[in-house]
């Protein structure tokens, strides 16, 4: 149904030619400018039922967008990250990635399609010619812009078409939640993992070089030995993550040289076990000075005194190295008597 089929008395009034338009060229206006063509009215302009149908279609698109956003969030929470599905003709793909892509794409597409359909069927489509004007905005121009904005808001029918307005606001409010959910992909939530390592009561101290459990006689006075927890192997998938928290320095001191009372109680015959991870930015400590019992971090020269609770004596490190309480089992091997009592490595915002 076109405007040609509607009686003229039902059609909106036609607008005249644009200002300055001339049908025939002359000396004053050497180029003919017939102005804008006659405006063709849409069915929605003259039939309220058609306008309501368009309104419901736009609202449906915005509603689908809201449902797709909810589907995105549900998929992110419920679909396992290691599950795959077969999608023709792509093949096997990640079920999570496929669900997130479909739902987010549908949410964004429906918002765009709803806005386009709204603009093409319900907003005013009358073409207006405006004269060129200086770049500087005069008070009159600013007043005209404000008036045009008010007129545009009125012609958009956003105040009268409440169903469109409310569903559009709902869709635009929900779709940013997809981005908030994606922030979780910055990494898994740490929970209490930063406070715990693989060390526990009964775990043997294993030499990092020989991969054999350590006995007290294997650690000579003045030597530096690196150890890992029993059961942690280099081919394990999470080896790097776990060794970054559980790596140990084993040093044997003369018991008389140990100044800190708790350090002496947590040692075995002068053998002390400290975290190898520097408390500044997490570099591995590897330099040991036998005469002074100091260990030095090679990254920023933080220095710790292993004879005095591994306290910081130089450098930017903020606190002492955590000590692991050790003992000897019935078979004569060095073992842990628990986990570190404080988080290893650099301080973090949950530390307390």
From TrEMBL:
The keyword Transmembrane helix applies. It comes from the Bacteria. One of its GO terms (molecular function) is metal ion binding. Its main location: membrane. Residues 240-335 form the Rieske domain. Keywords: 2Fe-2S, Cell membrane, Disulfide bond, Electron transport, Iron, Iron-sulfur, Membrane, Metal-binding, Oxidoreductase, Respiratory chain, Transmembrane, Transmembrane helix, Transport. It is found in: Cell membrane. It is a multi-pass membrane protein. InterPro entries: QcrA_N (IPR045603), Rieske_2Fe-2S (IPR017941), Rieske_2Fe-2S_sf (IPR036922), Rieske_Fe-S_prot (IPR014349). The chain crosses the membrane at residues 57-78, 98-119, 163-183. Residues 1-40 are annotated as: Disordered. One of its GO terms (cellular component) is plasma membrane. Belongs to the Rieske iron-sulfur protein family. The cytochrome bc1 complex is composed of a cytochrome b (QcrB), the Rieske iron-sulfur protein (QcrA) and a diheme cytochrome c (QcrC) subunit. Iron-sulfur subunit of the cytochrome bc1 complex, an essential component of the respiratory electron transport chain required for ATP synthesis. The bc1 complex catalyzes the oxidation of menaquinol and the reduction of cytochrome c in the respiratory chain. The bc1 complex operates through a Q-cycle mechanism that couples electron transfer to generation of the proton gradient that drives ATP synthesis. This is Cytochrome bc1 complex Rieske iron-sulfur subunit.
